[in-house]
Each structure stands twice: as C-alpha cells, then as structure tokens.
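Sample pair:
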Amino acid sequence: MALPEFIKCYAAGDTWLASCSARPDLVRAAWDTDALAPITSGTHWLVAEGQLATRYDALARIPEELRGPVLADLETDRLWWLVPLDAVEELADVRQLAVRPAGWCLPCPPTGWRVGGRVWLARPDGSGQLTDPAVLAAAIGPGGYRFPAEAS
C-alpha cells in the first residue's frame, strides 16, 4: 500500500532532520515516545532565535521557495530559523535575532506534529534548504523582503 503524499513529505523531513544529529537513532527514539529530540547545531545549520509574537510577520514576508525550516514554541513565545553555518556575520546587526553558536541544542519535534508546545511553522522537507541570512535580515527589517527587480 502506497503512503499518502503528505506522509511522504513528513517522512522526508524527518529523515533529513534526524540525519542532522550525530545519533539519528536517538532522535527517532525520542519521537517514537512523543518527546522532543535534542539536535545540536553546527554541523548542518545554525539557529537564529527570535520572539514569536514580534517576528512571526517575517515568516509571511519570505516567499516559500526561499524559506527554510522555522520552529516555534507557542508556550515560550520563541521562534527558531535554521540558517546556514556562515550566517553569523550577516545577521550580526539584526538586533531582533540571536544566532546561537555551533554546539547549541535545539529540542525538535518531528515535522508532522506538535510536541511540548513546539511546532514547525515551515517544515523541513528533506531538501536541506535553509533560510538565506540576507533574506531573513531583510524580512525582519521594516520594509520586508523584496524580490530583485526583473531584467527588462
């Protein structure tokens, strides 16, 4: 029996997310018990952290095709963007975000459901796409992200 398309999407995201851990088996074991899985940043991505209530609008400002995974904690009002490893310098002047250093642990739910108040607002899709820090910085800014002008 073939899996429904939405389950395949979650499976690809879960596979990618678990592979970002040194111990994918422990990530899967945590998810099997409806627990958050601790995934350490620095090998595949870094984490840019902001306040959910004031940074949620940036999510809508970034077109879906340019957006990487975004995790939210509805209970603690936190939002985490997965960004490339070289994002620190580009986001250094964005006061509304704190880029966490390599080795920082982000407790993650699986891509398909909410666990412990955390939910993926933009789910990992298995492609490994991350949010470009320049696009994120522009979306956080007052004018929001603007598409580059098309060549005439």
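The radius of gyration is 16 Å.
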